[in-house]
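Workshop exercise sheet. Pairs work together: one partner reads the sequence aloud, the other fills in the structure field after running the prediction. Swap roles for the next sheet.
Pair: D.N. / O.F.
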Amino acid sequence: MSSFLSRRRVLTTGAGAALGLGTIGATATAASAATPARHTSGPEETRTLDELYQAALKEGGKLVIYAGGDTPTQQDGTKAAFKARFPDIDLTMIVDYSKYHDVRVDNQFATDTLVPDVVQLQTLQDFVRWKRQGRLLNYRPAGFSKIYDGFKDPQGAWVAVSVIAFSFMYGPSAVGSDAPATPLDLVDPRWKGRIASSYPHDDDAVLYLYTLYARTYGWDWVARLAAQDVRFARGSNSPGDAVRSGEKAIGVGGSGGLVAPSSSPARFVAADNHPFMAWGQRAAILGQAANPTAAKLYLNWQLSTATQQNARNGWSVRTDVTPAGGLKPIWEYPNAHVDGFPKFMEDRAEVERMKQTFALYFGEVKGDPTPGSLGLHPGA
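Structure field:
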């Protein structure tokens, strides 16, 4: 705790203590009331990565990122790649469900105990709100003009750093020549007891995928899937884990791509004229960040052509990077509903209705959070 106290200013006045102990419902209001000055944006960054690196070291060489994800190690590959390029940056990357990170950051705003410099989350609606509150640093990294318009805020308050896609997948060795080709096949009786899924009412991206299924195939399809003895679990990693381990033949509500080698133990499916979903995972530099230069270095590195060309699923957020394996840019797949997910996330009343409806079909969410329970100030 002492290191946290030395790095971040904690409120010590009576009013501050009252704010810190206020109800959760008052947090957003309190944060808005304490809105800092808005940050003006400028032209695209012109410094090279090496120049930003040296500037970040002079700043102190530290960087804290709150990243959305399902397991504590899920961003280890990103961290290793960043450290290989910039070895002297002390990078702390904390992975948790985005729906916990966002309220954690709100509470840190309310108690003046902000920890992260960068937030990189699935809760797209938060970036719109935080921009409105003046919480984000308007900044245009190098190559900003090449980012797909739907994946960036015009003033640079936030920008998507990667494409994530959710659908269903299957294990080739488990299904043989009888592989499911579309979501309609998932309700075939031959797959009863052989499907794993993440809870749609626990993760908003999975919720949107299931909502697309319900809109396309009807609630009767949902009822038939509910009769398939699906094994539900927390964490969108869980369906893929079940398929890759051979525990289940099919996984629903997990991430993947269409460029996996034929030897892959899991095959991701995005059939023409059938829904799947994808989005740009947004990232932003917080206006009160303790390490803004290191944060800028991170965004420029993430959006660099070299990093984008190495995207695991083949899709880039940049318009000038050709997707791998003959894929089209993700925004050219109408059945990926790239523009639909942000709108869905903004309508929180609809999100709540869909969550509770799927709970009626599939039961309540059970299990501990897969990243663990991280508390109020992880990374401090």
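Discussion prompt: DSSP finds 15 helices and nine strands in the chain. What would you look at next?
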